[in-house]
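can u pls check wat happens w/ flavin-adenine dinucleotide
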Amino acid sequence: MHRIDIAVIGAGLSGLTCARRLSDAGAKVAVFEAAARIGGRIHALRDEQGQVLADLGPTWVWPPHQPVVAQWLDRLGLATFVQANDGDAVIEGYHPAPVRAPLPGQDGMMRIKGGPAALVQAMAAGLPDGMLHLNRPVTRLDPGRNGLILTDAEGAQVNAARVVLSAPLRFAATRIAIPAAPTALLHAMRATPTWMAGQAKAVILYDRPFWRDSGLSGRIASRIGPMVEVHDHSAPNGQPALFGFVGWPPEARDPAALEAAIRAQLTRCFGPDAPQPNSVTVQDWSREPLICTASDHMGAHPDLPPASLRQPHLDGRLHIAIAETSTRSPGLIEGALDAGDTTAAALLTSAGVE
Ligand SMILES: Cc1cc2nc3c(=O)[nH]c(=O)nc-3n(C[C@H](O)[C@H](O)[C@H](O)COP(=O)(O)OP(=O)(O)OC[C@H]3O[C@@H](n4cnc5c(N)ncnc54)[C@H](O)[C@@H]3O)c2cc1C
C-alpha cells in the first residue's frame, strides 16, 4: 500500500492552504479532491480562453479587518480593488414602484483581482507536481498500523501517518465512513452548517455597465426577488457584470422560471429601455453534491463550533481544517485560510518542525 506523511481530504481553500504550509515546511503531503477541479466553494465563470468573467462562489474579502487574508494576499502577490458602490441603489418592494436611494457600502469590503479563483490558483501553484489528486473522493477512513488508511470510491487505499479532513463537515459525516470516530465527533460534524451551501448566485453579463450612466450603483435591495441583493460585479477594465443572491428556496429554483424572473426583475428595476443582459448564469450551490446536504438548505450561519472540531482525534492522527472550524470569521475565506494555517502549524509542531 502507498504510504505518505500527511493526506489532505479536499482541495478547497482550507485544504490547499494547509497543504501549502506543510509542503513549504518540507512535509510529504498528498491532497485528495473528489471533484475534477480545485477550489470547492470558490468557483468562477470563465470565457473560452479560461479568463475569469465573474465569481460564482465568494467575491468579497475585508483585508483591513482580516489579517490572515491580508497576509496571504501579500505573500501571493495578489492585488485587490474596492467593491464599486458609487451612486444610488434601486430599492423595490417597499413602495408601489422601485425607488432609488443611496445605500452605504461596507467598510473595507474589497475584491481580489481575478477573483477568489486567483487566490486558489496561486495557493495551488506553490504545491509540488503530483501532490494534487483530482477525482479521488475519499469514502472511508480506518485506523492502520501506521496512521490511517484512506479508501477512495474505486477501492484504492493509501496509508497516511496523519490525515487532515478539509471537506464540508456535514457532508463528510454522511459520506465518509469513519467507524473509529467518537459519536460526539460525528454529532458535532453533522451539527455544523456549511456556510452559503444552500445559496444560489446569479451572474449577469453585459456589454457595458449601463447603470452608471444614470448615476446608479448597480445595487438592488429587493423584498420581491428573485434576487434579494444585487451588486455591481464589473472588474476594472474587465467584464461588465452584476451579481445577485437568489432569495427563492432551493426547492423552488426551476432554472428556466428563475432566469425569466431574474430578467423581469432587471427590467422592473432598471427600466424597459435598459440593455438586455448578454447572459444570465445561476450557480445553485444547493445542487452541488460535494458541498451541500439537505440540512444546509435552511442556510444557517455557522456559529463557532465546539472546540472538539479544532482538536485532533483518533490518537492525533485525524485533524480537521475547514472554514467553519476557524475561530476567525468562521465560514468565510478568512476562516478557510486560518483553518489551513492553524492545522498545518499544529501538525508541524507535533512533528517537531517549526
Ligand atoms: C455563494 C457563496 C458566496 C460566498 N461569499 C463569500 C464572500 O463573499 N466572502 C467570504 O469570505 N466567503 C464567502 N463564501 C464562503 C467561502 O466560499 C468559503 O469560506 C470557502 O470557500 C470555504 O473553503 P473550504 O476549503 O473551507 O471548503 P470548501 O470550499 O467547501 O472545500 C471543500 C472541498 O472538499 C471536497 N470534498 C468533499 N468531499 C470530499 C471527499 N469525500 N473526498 C475528497 N474531497 C472532498 C469538495 O469537493 C471541496 O473541493 C461564499 C460561499 C458561497 C457558496
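The first helix runs from residue 13 to 24.
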